[in-house]
Amino acid sequence: MHINRPAKSITEIPFSVLDLAPIVQGGTASQSFKNSIELAQLTEKLGFHRYWLAEHHNMPGIASSATSVVIGHIAAHTSSIRVGSGGIMLPNHSPLVIAEQFGTLEAMFPNRIDLGLGRAPGTDQRTAHALRGANYTNGDDFPEQLEQLQAYFEGSEQLPVRAIPGERANVPIWLLGSSGFSARLSAQLGMPFAFASHFSPENTIPALQLYYDNFQPSEEYKEPYAMAAVNVIVADTDEEADYLATSIKQTFLNLFRNTPSQLQSPVKNMEDLMSTYEMTLLEKQLGSSIIGSPTTVKKKLQGFLNETKVDEIMVSTMVYDHDARLRSHELVAGITGIQNR
Question: Can you tell me the distance from the alpha carbon of 72 to that of 83, in angstroms, rounded to the nearest whole number?
Answer without folding.
Answer: 8
